[in-house]
């Protein structure tokens, strides 16, 4: 990192919006917010945004929490408590707490920042970086900050390049050759293309950089508006685009890739299908996301677990895993795994067959169970002999079955089977 980008990072506070439920993940977010959902065997979704900030040199971070935040707050306390105040570092957990008025909840993404203006002013950062806490990607935010300062923008919006044919699902930026945003269109039927490439569009990543002084002024004005929804994407950003000094920053300019990654990686794992696919993709011979990159580590709470263990070596009772990721504390006791991702503490018993299984921590899989293309929530006890993934109609009656045939299994669903 050059001296200039290092200085910019140290003058910046990252504000992570982590209050969303993520309702499209169905029962996976019944007891936890989307940013707290487990991903990748050891980490939580929020760890990616936080790790990007730390690896970029940003050491002042605020995390706004709201929906069922206990799991998220506990994770932040356990895994992100290494900041030192004497080095001008901090991580503030900021639940909706009636600090500004007697309304319980954050009214929108902008209001979540507005209600914590006094905390921001106490640290007096020169720049504010607004981040979503629910996406999987690796990005050097210092390069985004550098562009923001060099252009003199009022706001710089982080954008992901997406095929124009798919861009109707996003908020899309129309930009000129200098990256100035000419128009911001929410889910357009005919998305504007990028300059010089008719096949690509620029979609908002929910990442914004402001000068702190300007942002606070805008937020205070927005808070007084009775017609505003107090949201960055709906109110703050469109107004700045109309004023003519908003710029886009394409993700490709600051994405972090290792020698194993062929292209920029960004995923919104906001549906059952997307979450399962991104998890299983990690088991590929050369996955699109490299979690083994020591140059850009994904920090998290590391549980103290013994190594994974594989036992039994008999015909039909051989503890083995092929094209799979198995976290610490797992015991593969005479079970066969193919393209599976097991988080810590999973116990797969003898004669069970697992194909395309994403198991969250502390799952127990009974003998002779056959599971295909499933997500198993934390601490679920799969009964012996259970078969999932071979009869679509039966699966849909018992479990949450997605459009693509992925089954989500929770303990409540298992309990119903046993009544």
UniProtKB/TrEMBL annotation:
It is an enzyme of class 2 (transferase). Its EC number is 2.7.7.27. It comes from Aliiroseovarius sediminilitoris. Homotetramer. The lineage of its organism: Bacteria, Pseudomonadati, Pseudomonadota, Alphaproteobacteria, Rhodobacterales. Involved in the biosynthesis of ADP-glucose, a building block required for the elongation reactions to produce glycogen. Catalyzes the reaction between ATP and alpha-D-glucose 1-phosphate (G1P) to produce pyrophosphate and ADP-Glc. This is Glucose-1-phosphate adenylyltransferase. One of its GO terms (biological process) is glycogen biosynthetic process. Residues 14-283 form the Nucleotidyl transferase domain. GO terms for molecular function: ATP binding; glucose-1-phosphate adenylyltransferase activity. The keyword Nucleotide-binding applies. Belongs to the bacterial/plant glucose-1-phosphate adenylyltransferase family.
